[in-house]
Amino acid sequence: MESVGSLFALPLLVLLIVLAMIISIALFSRNYIKVAPNTVAVLSGRKRKTSDGRVVGYRMVRGG
Question: How far apart are CA 22 and CA 14, in angstroms?
């Protein structure tokens, strides 16, 4: 006879995996930025060095 714990282990594991996938998709879609051709997205955040040595707090991403 199976114990109650092992009876619910597999459905609980499947539920947790599905929940983790839903949360991952939600976080990705919230942080995804689509840049159309011939436009620029300016992202602000942590400091970084540019190729000419300046330290800036933004990054420009060009589309197209």
Answer: 12
Residue 33 has pLDDT above 80, yes or no: yes
Using alpha carbons, select from 8, 7, 63, 14 the residue that is nearest to residue 39.
Answer: 63
- Which residues, at least 6 apart from 59, have a Cβ–Cβ distance to it below 8 Å? 42, 43, 45, 48
Does the reported pTM lie above 0.70?
no
The tokens 């990054």 sit on which residue? 59
Q: Alpha-carbon distance 58 to 49, whole Å?
A: 10
Check the CA dihedral 24-27-30-31 and report its sign: negative
